[in-house]
Structure formats: C-alpha cells, structure tokens
Amino acid sequence: MADDDEKDVDEAPEPKSKKSPIILVVVLVIVTLALSVAIAFFVTTKLMSEAAIEQANSPAAVHHDPGVFKQLGDEKEGILVNVGGQKAGKFLKTKIILELNPGKKDVIAEGVVLPVAETKIQDCVLQVLRSSKLDEFDAMKQDELKKKIKDEVNGILGEGTVYDVYITSFLLQ
Length: 173
Prior knowledge:
Blueprint lengths: L1 H10 L1 H45 L10 E4 L7 E5 L6 E11 L7 E2 L2 E2 L1 H17 L10 H16 L4 E11 L1
Antiparallel strand pairs: 1-3, 2-3, 3-6, 4-5
C-alpha cells in the first residue's frame, strides 16, 4: 500500500504539468492578440488620423457643391485666338470649360451664367491667352495655365467663383 500511495502522489503532479503548457500557450495567444489589437489601434488612431488631417488640409481636398459648367467661346469651335504676338503667326484653338460656383448670385442665376459675367469671363480668358508666351502653352505647363486662368477670373468676379478649369481640346498652329 505504501507503494500505491507513492504512485498516487507521483501521478498527481503529472496532470498539472500537462495542463501547464496548455495554459501557457493559451496565455501567450491571448497576450499576442491583445498586443496586436493595441498596435492596430495605435496605427489607426495616430498614423491614419495624421494622414487624414494632411489630406483634408490639402487644396485638392476642398469639397464644394457641384458647380455649373460653362464652355467658353463657340459651342462647336471653342476659342480661336492668335498667341505669341502678331509676328509669331501662331493660332490657338481650344475648348475651355469653367466650373463655376452656383452660390454666386451675381454670376449665376437659376443654373445659367448671366450675360454680364459671361462677357467678363470671356474677356479675361482671352487676355490671359493673348498675353501668354508661346513656351507657356507647352503640355507640361498646362496646369500652370489653368491656375492662371482660374486666378484671373476669380480676381475679376470674386474669390471662389471658379472651382476649376478644364481644357478639353488644345491645338496650337
């Protein structure tokens, strides 16, 4: 019987030792999951929020109401203007569309550009095109030309009148 008691005493610690590795593995898995959740939370709140703030502050991220689109010049032909001075003998045929702020009541009424504003816009854009040098019409400088047109028209009609400028065709001869 003494041998049986010794065997019972020896057998009792063995099941605990088998449970210890299982419990250890479960605890490690839980700690790993908790750490993963903490890291994901940190990345989401800190890094992503900083990126969202930077994107929200960028000029391209400005949200506005849908604008009213107005094509300048003839509906089929667009604008035909001599560029580079009289001695250059170059002509520009282009279609320029402006996206205008529908909230500007002195420019747009019931979704239509008022004739006075349309005349000012056409004159301003033609002045910009005529005063530009030939090298400013390079394809690589098209964004600069758009910005220049937008700034000039906004200067005449008031800031925020033009949302964007689109050039849908461009032929320089």
